[in-house]
Amino acid sequence: MSKEEAKLWGGRFTGGTDPLMELYNASLPYDKKMYKVDLEGTRVYTSALSKVGLITPEELSEIHRGLKVVEKEWETDSFVEKPGDEDIHTANERRLGEIIGKHIGGKVHTGRSRNDQVVTDMRLYVREKLDILCEILSNLIKVMTGRARQEIDVLMPGYTHLQRAQPIRWAHWLSMHATFLNDDLTRLKEIRSRVSRSPLGSGALAGHPYGIDREYIANELGFEGVIGNSLAAVSDRDFVIEVLFWGSLVGNHLAKLSEDLIIYSSAEFGFVQLADAYSTGSSLMPQKKNPDSLELLRGKSGRLFGHLAGFMMSAKATPSTYNKDLQEDKEPLFDNLLTVEHSLLIATGVFSTLKINSDKMKAALTMDMLATDLADYLVRKGVPFRETHHISGEAVALAEKENLGGIDRLTIEQYKNIDSRFEEDVLNVFDFEQSVERRTAIGGTAKSAVIAQLDFLDLQCN
Questions:
Q1: Catalytic residue flag (residue 435)
Q2: Residue 4 pLDDT exceeds 60
Q3: Domain limits at 61?
Q4: Model pTM?
Q5: What residues does the Fumarate lyase N-terminal domain cover (predicted)?
Q6: Residue 460: which residues within 8 A CB-CB, separation 6 or more?
Q7: HSE of 288 in the Cβ direction (CA atoms, 13 Å)?
Q8: Catalytic residue among 2, 61, 266, 282
Q9: What is the total count of domains within the chain?
C-alpha cells in the first residue's frame, strides 16, 4: 500500500503530498497527549457499533484487546510513531490494525469521522484537566483562607490609587483575592458542565447512518448529555474559547494579586517576604532577592490572553461545520491549561511559605487614614455626611498647616473651633482597631465580618 493509500483519506488522491505540507498538516507532536481518551472513545464507540450488529462480539473482544496493547505502549513510551501518522487518531488506528489485523481494525472507524472523534477527545481531555484545576484552585483558596484565620488580627493600610486610604485587616486583603479566585472556581464548574456534552456519533457532519445509540456512548464516556445537532457537534469550539477565557481571567486575577505582593515585598514597604524557594538572586548584585515567581505569574497573564485572542481570530467567520482552521485550537488550549495549572501551584506555594511583617504593616498606618472615621463621628451625632466630610477635611488641613503630624494631635479646643458639635469623646476616634471593628456590615473589615467571608469561601471550596 502506498503512503497516500495508507492515509485515512488516501483513496481519493493519486499525487503525493509536499513534505512541508505533511509537516504543516501534522498535529501528532502535540495532540498525542490525548492518546488515552482517544483509545477510550474508540473502546466505547466500537461497543456501540457492536450493539447495532456492525461488529461481532468476537471482533469487539479483539479490538478491545488491541486497544489495551496500544495504551500500554504509550504508557511505557514504546509506541513507535511512523510517517503518515498525521494525528493521534491516525496513529492509534494504524497501530491497532497492525496488532489485530487490518480487516478487524478497519471496522473501528465505521460511521465515524475524525471530525466527531477529535472533538470528543478534546472534550474528554479538557474535562479531565478541569477537574484537576478545580482541585488545585480549591486548595489555593483554602491556603489563603487558612492564613487569613491565623493572621486575622494583623492590621495594614488599604489603598486606592496606590495611596493610603483606610485601615483594613491583612485577612481582609487575603479574602479579597480569595473572593476573585472563588468566582473563578464557580465559573470553572459551570464551564465543566458545558464541556461535558458528547459529539460522538455525529459523523463528519450529517449524523450517523447506522442508528447508533449516542446516549449510550455519552453515558459510557461519562458525559452529562448529547449535543443534539450533528453540524454543531463537529464544529463547536465555544468550549475551547470558554476555557481560554477562563484561563485568561484567572491569569488576570493572579497578576493583580502578584502586583500587590511585589509592591508589598519591596524595601519601601517591607510588608511581606517571599521564601527563597520562590525568589531568585541577581547575577551582579549579591544583596538582591527578586520576586521572580510573582513576576512570572504577572507576565504569564499576557501569554494566557494571547492564546484567547489568537484562537478567537482563527475561529471567527469560519464556514459552517469543520474546517482545518480549527486545528489551531489544540496548541493554545493545551498550553493554557498547563500554564494555569502551574501558575495556581506556584501561587499556592507562595502563600504557603510567605512571611509577613506585621510591625511594618502597623507602622504604615497613619492617623490621616481615620479622616473618614472623624466624619462618621459627626454623622452619629446627626450631622449630614456631606457636611461632615467638609468638616473633617478642615481638620486635616489644619493639622497639616500646623505641622502637627496627624489629626489626632489637634486639641479639643481646636476641634471645637472647627465645629462646635465636636465633644471631648472625639479623641476616641483615633484607634485603628476600633476603626476596622466599626465596619460590621457584610463584607466589612470587622473581625466578625471577615470570618463570615472566610466561612463562605471555605464552604464554596468543599
A1: no
A2: no
A3: 3-105
A4: 0.92
A5: 11-306
A6: 141, 182, 185, 186
A7: 9
A8: 282
A9: 3
